[in-house]
Amino acid sequence: MWTGPMLLDIHSQRKQKICLVILNQPIDERYFHVLWSKAKIRACADGGANHLYRLTEGRRESFLPDYINGDFDSILPEVKAFYTQKKCKLMETPDQDLTDFTKCLAIMVEEIKAQKLQIDTIVTLGGLGGRFDQIMATLETLFHAQKMTDLPVVVLQDRSLAVLLQEGRQHHLNVNTGLEGKWCSLVPVGSTCLTTTSGLKWNLDNQVLAFGQLVSTSNTYEDHDPKGGRKPVTVTTDKPLLWSMGIKPL
Amino acid sequence: MDEFAPLDCLLPSAKIRACADGGANHLYRLTEGRRDSFLPDYINGDFDSILPEVKAFYTEKNCKMMKTPDQDLTDFTKCLAIMLEEIKAQKLQIDTIVTLGGLGGRFDQIMATVETLFHAQKMTDLPVVVIQDRSLAVLLQEGRQHHLNVNTGLEGKWCSLVPVGSPCLTTTSGLKWNLDNQVLAFGQLVSTSNTYEDHDPKEGRKPVKVTTDKPLLWSMGIKPQ
After folding, report:
1. What pLDDT sits at residue B34?
2. Any idea where the Thiamin pyrophosphokinase thiamin-binding domain is (chain B) (predicted)?
């Protein structure tokens, strides 16, 4: 069972083992500390290092990434010099058809294997805001990630979380952590999706989600007995389907 | 083929101006001190976002307040529907419907904006352009060759073609990385961080041309002004 928001729960009983990717977007400080402290491997994709550098001013030595990759056209010279001097691995992955984010994930998957780590989720800070084509590029990376690893790749920015649900299996989403915001959504980003759900206020019963036809946004969770707690949301789809949800302000 | 300049809309001026629900809050805040010069023709929505003082202000100024309660359609979609009726009722010659906002904030609402652009294609032939921060997005219809004038001087560096909703068989010219009857599809090939082909500075840029067999989302950067 997958628990997205549990990533953010510092008191969580079940310690999710994660790896952390920081992208070139302002970092939510509220989430940063919880995620950084839980992560087994921490990386920045190019300009993500600038945001890390800025956020951790005064105590930068305590927040050194394991590696920084990219074509290095966004990272500032002083930031690059600092992390180089602190012996963080700087991995130049020059411009090709793949984004810095995709390449960062590829390295992450290799590192997890090389270090023989048991990891539950790869968490990404940033990617859902800013330049519109780069939001779209984030989604494209989630598609590529499915071919690179079975691990869920979760993207967080501001109070939104997004994850691409694979086709062909029933997903159980634990939405009972207390960290859930009000809204949730299922979006057939790349193609029509034949979808069945339970646990939502507006469920789908073997229905086609498709742009121009039906897209589920501003959905929410079904009412539940406050003593009972929410049942998991279940989702099946025949094509990759983008789940997103709101996060309660921490 | 009629040419379409996506950034043309940043030159004045609008014939009809409307707010979708909480858009009125932003208008109210932005125009503090001279609100009377910036009255929308109408404000629609389920009114769950507009602040009471804002609603009271615009009501008192006789802006049309059109409650369009929650159904399966977003405030944005309903605002467009009203806009089209008004254009028809007033017999206006309009080139483009421009939207401020929609590409940032809550992630599902960014997706809902894109969904509205799909619905808009069934509602009108007018292009519906969405602008936020320094991004512009417009959904290109299938079945015809689009000529995008990108020589206004307002263009930023990047542009992008994204096959939202389904794979798109695409051909382009005028881009640095063109497509030659290729399939754009999530998980396969999506064009982001593209840019314009080099051109003779004396000549100016040739239009970007795009044909697609399914609706294809064009987006581009806007130069800081």
Report:
1. 92
2. 153-216
